[in-house]
Amino acid sequence: xxxxxxxxxxxxxxxxxxxxxxxxxxxxxxxxxxxxxxxxxxxxxxxxxxxxxxxxxxxxxxxxxxxxxxxxxxxxxxxxxxxxxxxxxxxxxxxxxxxxxxxxxxxxxxxxxxxxxxxxxxxxxxxxxxxxxxxxxxxxxxxxxxxxxxxxxxxxxxxxxxxxxxxxxxxxxxxxxxxxxxxxxxxxxxxxxxxxxxxxxxxxxxxxxxxxxxxxxxxxxxxxxxxxxxxxxxxxxxxxxxxxxxxxxxxxxxxxxxxxxxxxxxxxxxxxxxxxxxxxxxxxxxxxxxxxxxxxxxxxxxxxxxxxxxxxxxxxxxxxxxxxxxx
Length: 327
Fold this sequence. Notes:
Layout: E1 19-28, E2 31-41, E3 46-50, H1 57-64, E4 72-77, H2 86-92, E5 93-96, H3 108-118, H4 123-136, H5 152-163, E6 170-174, H6 182-197, E7 201-205, H7 209-215, E8 218-223, E9 226-231, H8 233-240, E10 243-250, H9 256-265, E11 269-275, E12 278-284, H10 287-299, E13 304-309, H11 314-322
């Protein structure tokens, strides 16, 4: 099957997003690795593509990174075509795959100098550029060390420096936190926030959803090769919550069984549980239902110390959105 001749407005006609795809599809025999992907990543955003293994994230990234031809559909990187004009796209984009090879028998500075040469960075600029990048990824003290001596986290940071060597406007990071310890993941998150402050656009995939929530401005959920939903986290949180969740704490001296029985018999309560001294309550309806429930509990002379709405997470969004899609 040939690549479809669908169209996206040219960058000159509208302000082009960093990434836009229409009907992007990749089929291997009877397997659809990516199906009809319609994605829009705003310029300057940190866009998190969330999905389990086999969802199609790496396939999509490989197409956008000019390394894989789609079966159908089109894509644009800042208005440029990664399929028919890969060299233009490569000048705009830095790609960090989930597993990347490093040349162990070279020093860190030499490694980056090699890629700077590959991207035709002038010789007179390379030393300063490499120093700046190593400072950004906190590897300045490792410049003369051999790459093989670096830890996994350090190699990940070196890979990020490599992806930045030509100062791209877009970074595509495929599972960059894979295999990292908690400290290294915190450092990676801080680097992503630093890139955001530099007005870079970042497209990132990861299974560590709670950490993505802290850095992303937009998210998309991919399942079985299809994009199910995308948007800003605040919008996704609102749309993903068909019910409200509250946490309630009472003054000492209450009878837990009596409280649980009262809550379970209330018409607005869907579910309730006692967790570490707090009553976790799921309410069907809106804020008015929650207010009415609180009023009823006060009338029954429950000594309520705290009644707080809890917030949905990316994990809850993911589970709700993908429930029943793949068994």
